[in-house]
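so ive been stuck on this for like two days lol. basically i have the seq below and the ligand is fe (ii) ion, smiles is in there too. i just want the complex predicted, nothing fancy, no docking runs or whatever. if the output looks off dont worry ill sanity check it later, just need somthing to start from for the group meeting slides
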Amino acid sequence: MSTTAISDEKIPNNVNLAGDRKLQRALEAWQPNFVSWWKEMGPYGFQTDDVYLRTAISVESDGWAHFNYVKMPDYRWGIFLAPAVADRTIGFGDNFGEPVWQQVPGEHRNTLRRLIVTQGDTEPASVEQQRMLGHTCPSVYDLRNLFQVNVEEGRHLWAMVYLLHSYFGRDGREEAEALLMRRSGDRDTPRILGAFNEPCTDWLSFFMFTFFTDRDGKFQLLALAESAFDPLSRTTRFMLTEEAHHMFVGETGVGRIVERTAELMEKNKVTHPDDVRKLGAIDLPTMQRYLNLWYSLSLDLFGGEISSNAASFFATGLKGRAKEDKYEDHRALDGTYAIDVVKDGAIATEQVPLRNAMNEILRDEYVADCQRGLDKWNRQLAAHNVEFKFELPNRRFHRHIGIYSDINADPSGKLISAADFAQRREDWLPSEKDKEYIRSLMQHPIFDPKQMANWISAPKQGIKGRPVDFEYVRRGEG
Ligand SMILES: [Fe+2]
Ligand SMILES: [Fe+2]
């Protein structure tokens, strides 16, 4: 058996779990709790359906997945690490060039555990946020994609729980339990990060979430893939292969709504949002407002612009920059980074030591990646002769974390008063009326594989060579 193939044990894995009885027993004890959580908080009302899902069967970059019908509670969640890189050395920070760690150094134990718990907490949180969406699905194709994202977020939780159980002793086991106890949006036991407590109860939000919020996940994983703690690096590297599909769901989901709206606008020669709504489509200003919301919530997930925590994560080798290889200076001790700060009610540029700006550097990469998606949607609009352009709001807009959290800015970044912000809020962020309209479009699910909701265009192709109208979900009994 190759070291990357996945075993057929109770818990599928490629980490030779059978060779560590104690760990195996601990994880086998956690497994039923996970399944209870899934049944309670996973997709509501679809647990007996047969869903055409991909399951990891190897961690090789080609052909790692297998597609077949499976009932979600029977999904083969497991523990998969990307292959070890021989003689891997630390790629950045004070210990640059030294061998990576196979165990957690005592002095970094608490910080590393916190990083892993914070990442792990987002995984079940998103499943909880999305658990009712199946009942308003625009097509069976989309329903299947939702469930694919959900089961893989469940597996990402497994990935983090494996690290907690293997390397953090009793504290780790307690954290693993707590990951199943918190609930997205719960007043008393919320999930750790803000965006993961926001309701995500309509499909426009879902596609924006998978585009913007899952993309934060991608960049956090890229930064953790650089970690000196090798097991964390290996597990996040494999998670990234799954994450790519979540990004695809978001980008093409929004893209298909854009396509449908643009097509209807062109055909019916309408431009006014009210006229677009009369056609049962989602008008572009409303999409822009949803975009503003999910983008700004996701920007917060990168943390403070000027951060001594980020500096120490980098110094110690816990968390690097995305694709550290492309940088020349891996110690980042000398440079500075220009950050716009707010001083006496005005914007002033401050030079910040490079290491303290690591959150902002990661955020820059994220912003550029988001922009690429918007450019694509804007090209679709142009192709239909629609004069509208989606824009990313300035990063000072609608922030709750970091140096812009106590100021108010318009989408262009101009500082304004709280009163002005409140007055213009509904121009920039989804209003109750917007949400009501979006809900009105999504009253019923579409379970006939031949049908597609009116407000979204059909995808160009199906999953894994299957036709778009393939029966991706077979509804179970009751
Ligand atoms: Fe994830
Ligand atoms: Fe994801």
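The mean pLDDT is 96. DSSP finds twelve helices and seven strands in the chain.
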